[in-house]
């Protein structure tokens, strides 16, 4: 191996995997709980609005851009994919198959050295794209959990969003699903309280200043002005500020089963009425000095 084990403890097992032309070994080690936990450097609260234009917009005003590795490498990816496809087609013709025909079961196509090289180059490019995306997501999620005692995110329907043919590539390039997965376990590692807002909570439509709800907001509108208090909002920043309130508010607009955000038309008080179902995955101080994980679900009073 190229590096020594990072933890000392009882070895439980190992998993060997191959990505492109590289081999990896993941070793499972049983260690005391205090070794797996990390210490936070900050105690703030932040709301995070994920998007395509900006990968993450924070309630403190920061806007974080994603590297979009697939978009950057798309031209090279197409060239290498077409080259490999032509070589596969030549192999089919070499065994007497018609162009585009699927080889019968058990038929072994001849593999040339050039075809092996093309397949390896394509696999390395796919691995590079995945590594760049994972590295960005790891840095972002580690920063959020390390610098804040509470982080509020939305429960995005990633599978449903990927069904949109126009946005699927851009959404997949940002990695929403990977972000949620990493936030779940890093919140436990740093003892950070992770609040997951209800899927239908209208974070973009509510005015973060007075609570008025803009019912007619469309996806194309990136900025809007509140008709009640006159505040001009950036769509993503306003949504992040509304999400931040969920970490401290004791009562918020209830989400309706119809999926329209659930709040009554007009003004929506910041702290009034019923509670939006919000999943709290939080940490509480334990005997080890770090925070232990707990979960509960807010319900209407």
UniProtKB/TrEMBL annotation:
Residues 176-243 form the Cas12f1-like TNB domain. Residues 28-91, 109-163 form the Probable transposase IS891/IS1136/IS1341 domain. It comes from the Bacteria. One of its GO terms (biological process) is DNA recombination. Keywords: DNA recombination, DNA-binding, Transposition. GO terms for molecular function: DNA binding. The keyword Nucleus does not apply. In the C-terminal section; belongs to the transposase 35 family. This is IS200/IS605 family element transposase accessory protein TnpB.
């Amino acid at each position: 191996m190229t590096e020594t084990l990072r933890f000392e403890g009882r070895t439980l097992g190992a998993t060997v995997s191959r990505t492109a032309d590289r081999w990896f070994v993941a070793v499972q080690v049983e260690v005391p709980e205090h070794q797996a936990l990390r210490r936070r450097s900050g105690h703030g609260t932040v709301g995070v609005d994920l998007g395509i234009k900006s990968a993450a917009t924070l309630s403190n005003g920061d806007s974080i851009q994603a590297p979009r590795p697939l978009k950057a490498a798309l031209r090279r990816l197409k060239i290498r994919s077409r080259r490999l496809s032509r070589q596969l087609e030549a192999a089919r013709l070499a065994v007497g198959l018609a162009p585009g025909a699927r080889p019968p079961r058990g038929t072994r196509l001849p593999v040339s050295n050039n075809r092996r090289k093309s397949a390896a180059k394509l696999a390395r490019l796919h691995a590079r794209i995945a590594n760049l995306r994972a590295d960005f997501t790891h840095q972002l999620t580690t920063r959020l959990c390390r610098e804040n005692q509470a982080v509020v995110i939305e429960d995005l329907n990633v599978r449903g969003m990927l069904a949109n043919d126009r946005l699927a590539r851009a959404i997949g390039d940002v990695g929403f699903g990977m972000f949620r997965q990493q936030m779940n376990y890093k919140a436990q590692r740093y003892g950070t309280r992770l609040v997951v807002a209800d899927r239908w909570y209208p974070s973009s439509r509510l005015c973060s200043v007075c609570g008025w709800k803009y019912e007619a907001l469309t996806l194309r509108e990136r900025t809007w002005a509140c008709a009640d208090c006159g505040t001009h909002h950036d769509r993503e920043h306003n949504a992040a500020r509304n999400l931040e309130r969920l970490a401290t508010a004791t009562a918020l607009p209830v989400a309706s089963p119809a999926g329209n955000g659930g709040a009554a038309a007009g003004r929506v008080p910041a702290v009034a009425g019923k509670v939006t179902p919000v999943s709290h995955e939080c940490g509480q101080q334990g005997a080890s000095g770090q925070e232990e994980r707990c979960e509960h679900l807010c319900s209407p009073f």
